[in-house]
Amino acid sequence: MKQAGEAGENAVAADDVVARLRRCLARAGEGSATGGDWPGAGGQAHRPAAVLVPLVLHEGQVSGPTVLLTRRTDHLHHHPGQISFPGGGMEAGDISAEAAALREAKEETGLAPEEVEIIGRLPDYLTGTGFRVTPVVGLLRPPLVLEPDTFEVAEVFEVPLAHFLDPASHRRHTLRVGNTQRHFHAMPYGDYFIWGATAGMLMSLYRLLAEKG
């Protein structure tokens, strides 16, 4: 698994971040859904989905937690090559968003559910492709044993959480689709262009940690 660099001066202490998350996540998941500004994002017929937002706590790493992400393979029909969290649509056997997120993470990356400490949810995210995504935040403590599904996942890598918490990393892009302008977040990191729903959910995490209290 690739770890994409360090965050230098923007490092955040893992203990501080985890403490803030534990205090804030209980109320964060109860908030209104967020989503991109494009047709369909505010509709009522969204299919339920869930993703795991995995924060990796490396023992002794002064740069703070990292965020585990995947890069989808280029041949997939939906969102080829994009950066994403492990996750997908909820299935009949999923008793909760947490169960769906852990199942999908296991299927995509080989991450064992017992290796994840679930600590809460971010607000649901509405996508323009018709999903209402529940981001489930979990803590991972290395060593991690991962076996990615090579059909779906081209790469599993980590980015310092501090990168996403730095406003200088945040971008806002506009794309015209027909007669409509679509706006979306992006948080580029090196060769990785992190955008769309993934960046939107990372913005939710940023806003949560930026709150006082």
Description:
There is one protein chain. It contains four helices and twelve strands. It is of the alpha+beta class. It has one domain: Nucleoside Triphosphate Pyrophosphohydrolase, CATH 3.90.79. Strands 1, 2, 3, 4, 5, 6, 7, 8, 9 and 10 form a ten-stranded mixed beta sheet that branches. It has a two-stranded antiparallel sheet with strand order 11-12. Strand 11 and strand 12 form a beta hairpin. It is globular.
Strand content: 25-35%
Mean pLDDT: 84
Order of helices and strands: EHEEEEEHEEEEHEEH
Radius of gyration: 16 Å
CATH C-level name: Alpha Beta
Q: Which terms would index this structure?
A:
alpha+beta; Nucleoside Triphosphate Pyrophosphohydrolase; single chain; 213 residues; 10-stranded mixed sheet; 12 strands; 4 helices; two-stranded antiparallel sheet
